[in-house]
Amino acid sequence: MSTSSPDWLTHGHPHIWLPYTQMKTADLPAPVARTQGCRIELADGRVLIDGIASWWTACHGYNHPHIVHAVQAQLERMPHVMFGGLVHEPALTLARRLCALLGPGLDRVFFTESGSVSVEVAMKMAMQYWSNLGEPQRRRILAFRGGYHGDTFGTMAVCDPGIGMHTAFDGAVARQDLCELPTDEARADMLEAWLAARADQVAAILVEPLVQGAGGMRMHAPAVLARLREMADRHGILLIFDEIFTGFGRTGSLFAFEQAGVRPDIVTLSKALTGGTLPLAATVASQRVFEGFWSDDPTHALMHGPTYMGHALGCAAALASLDLFETEPRLAQVRVIEGLLREGLAPCNALPGVREVRVMGAIGAIELTSRPDPAALRRAFLEAGAWIRPFGRIVYLTPAFVMPPEDLRRLTGVICEVLGASAAAHPA
Ligand SMILES: *Cc1c(COP(=O)(O)O)cnc(C)c1O
């Protein structure tokens, strides 16, 4: 690829620092010229089918004209204005529409610019809620093995250290408490015993509903969430659902919690909120949580406020994205994708080196028995015309919901071929 590198890559790469990347040994990143629909066009003219929708965000495909026009119109009116003491129509309309979609009991929206920060805000809300109520000892957040909630210090504390993304900061991160998800009776008993011993110190339980994403695409039954809701209620603890990955249709319902028939006290949203166009996140709280801050005491106000909060362009993009969920058949498309993923990835079950194939909604994940060489796999996918980015022992697809069946069949076919060839090259 280096022969066809554009000048901006050659001259700019020595000055850029890339995420999760050993800069010394990693392949040069693929230079993107443009995007359209489910395709990524590289600088040398090659076109890739995008299997992961830019870290799960671009649910309507790239460059959807409805979002493009909404952002253009907003840009001309007002790119942004500070949100302290001033407000604007896109943010307030978005807050109202998000609450309507989330349903009764999730009533107040706090906007931020990234998923990690929306989780930070959720945890701060939970802790300050209790201190405002005269229980400042409730500082603990209970999170779960296999979970991922972000890369900032507060969120690293609630990630499973076993997923290995943050080991460089061991000792510097104030670890919160981690338990096993209550996926069976024995684990539920363990969690119950843990809670019974220290419920009065716990501010909130934090969980990714139905699918733990970056921690390994692990899926659990809706009943697990009902169990957590019941435990949280019995001990008077707040329940936070991190729907940053699962929100906006990814698991088959608009929000994952709908499948469990229970509601959180706080929910975090980001990734697909703007359809993959602009950075924006939201922390949405119940009336109960909000009322914990409702006071004549100014120190009881929520103490957080990012400079770019409620960014007007991001809010305009999110409003346009919500329009698309109303006017285009996104959830039906997710059902079709789910069937195609099941069918297309099933042959991988028979491959040596494959531990399990898991599918839920528009998520298809293959867990391998051992950690592959991720760079070699990425290269093989790239050569086959697919943008697929495995991590750890997981190879996965999270396509845009608008992906045509023939593209999706091509992607599942490429995965079967590449994993088959690598199994043949390295027999167990
Ligand atoms: C991606 C993700 C985050 C972090 O979001 P950023 O925008 O990358 O900070 C948090 N929680 C979950 C479940 C995520 O998938």
UniProtKB/TrEMBL annotation:
Keyword Transferase attached: yes
Compartment(s): Cytoplasm
Enzyme class per UniProt: transferase
Feature type site, description Participates in the substrate recognition with KAPA and in a stacking interaction with the adenine ring of SAM: Y20
Catalytic activity: (8S)-8-amino-7-oxononanoate + S-adenosyl-L-methionine = S-adenosyl-4-methylsulfanyl-2-oxobutanoate + (7R,8S)-7,8-diammoniononanoate
UniProt KW Cytoplasm keyword: yes
Enzyme Commission (EC) number: 2.6.1.62
Binding of substrate, residues: W55, Y148, K271, G305, R389
Named cofactor requirement(s): pyridoxal 5'-phosphate
Main location: cytoplasm
Keywords: Aminotransferase, Biotin biosynthesis, Cytoplasm, Pyridoxal phosphate, S-adenosyl-L-methionine, Transferase
PTM annotation (N6-(pyridoxal phosphate)lysine): residues: K271
UniProt cross-references to PANTHER family, sorted A to Z: ADENOSYLMETHIONINE-8-AMINO-7-OXONONANOATE AMINOTRANSFERASE
HAMAP family tied to this protein: BioA
Family to which this protein belongs: Belongs to the class-III pyridoxal-phosphate-dependent aminotransferase family. BioA subfamily.
Function: Catalyzes the transfer of the alpha-amino group from S-adenosyl-L-methionine (SAM) to 7-keto-8-aminopelargonic acid (KAPA) to form 7,8-diaminopelargonic acid (DAPA). It is the only aminotransferase known to utilize SAM as an amino donor.
Entry-linked NCBIfam families: bioA (TIGR00508), PRK05964.1 (NF004624)
Subunit note: Homodimer.
Protein name: Adenosylmethionine-8-amino-7-oxononanoate aminotransferase
The encoding gene: bioA
